[in-house]
């Protein structure tokens, strides 16, 4: 079993739809990152969370530490949001170990 | 925001040769950098943790003599793939943790390596 599970693996949405990507983890963490990877490969860190909720533009990320669950929401989705979204958890107390989800491939259709 | 630059972004090399990939933190110092490998449609796999001024820590199954890591300054880590083989063809990506932080991490753009 992977330490980080994401769902769904693939997601196709119409432009304008509200999108939710879920992440569950089984290890202790000091922070959770939501990453965006475009087809060219480069990775951008969207959010770093250790509790609560963060919002940046149309993106919202939440985390529930007790339930070991995080969600990434995209409001008013746009074709440029098409990318792979990766959940990564980090525990700086146990040797800098990063655990990555397998990613959610999002395609937003105009 | 903080920028981590990788170079080259794409490289093709012949079997048996060595290739070096650089990872630079452009506007911050990074005592610790990480090197990952990613196969198509798979998640990132940590290869090694690079600490400035000391030897890298390699993950289980990663050959340290094949994947040489040097972190000679607070802004530069290099990964050298020695005696490259076609099965080394992959996407290599680095990340850097700003000195003095615990959970902040910035990723490079990645480097596509093709060994022919």
Helical residues, percent of chain A: under 10%
Number of strands of chain A: 11
**Main sheet of chain A, how many strands, which sense, barrel?**
6 strands, mixed
Low-confidence sequence ranges of chain A: none
Quaternary structure classification: heterodimer
Rounded to the nearest angstrom, the radius of gyration of chain B is 13 Å
Strand content of chain B: over 45%
| Separation of the first and last Cα atoms of chain B | 37 Å
Order of helices and strands of chain A: EEEEEEEEEEE
Number of helices of chain A: 0
Number of helices of chain B: 0
Q: What would the average pLDDT of chain A be, to the nearest integer?
A: 92
Secondary-structure element order of chain B, N to C: EEEEEEEEEEE
Structural class designation of chain A: mainly beta
Q: Work out the number of β strands of chain B.
A: 11
Shape of chain B: globular
For the largest beta-sheet of chain B, the strand count, sense and barrel status come to: 7 strands, mixed
The mean pLDDT of chain B is: 92
Distance N to C terminus of chain A: 36 Å
Helix content of chain B: under 10%
Shape, per Cα inertia axes of chain A: globular
Describe it for me?
- The complex is a heterodimer of chains A (110) and B (116).
- The mean pLDDT of chain A is 92.
- With 110 residues, chain A is mostly beta strands.
- In chain A, strands 2, 4, 5, 9, 10 and 11 form a six-stranded mixed beta sheet that branches.
- In chain A, β4 and β5 form a beta hairpin.
- Chain A is globular, with a radius of gyration of 13 Å.
- Chain A is built from no helices and eleven strands.
- With 116 residues, chain B is mainly beta.
- Chain B is 0% helix and 51% strand.
- The relative contact order of chain B is 0.33.
- The model of chain B has no long low-confidence stretch (mean pLDDT 92).
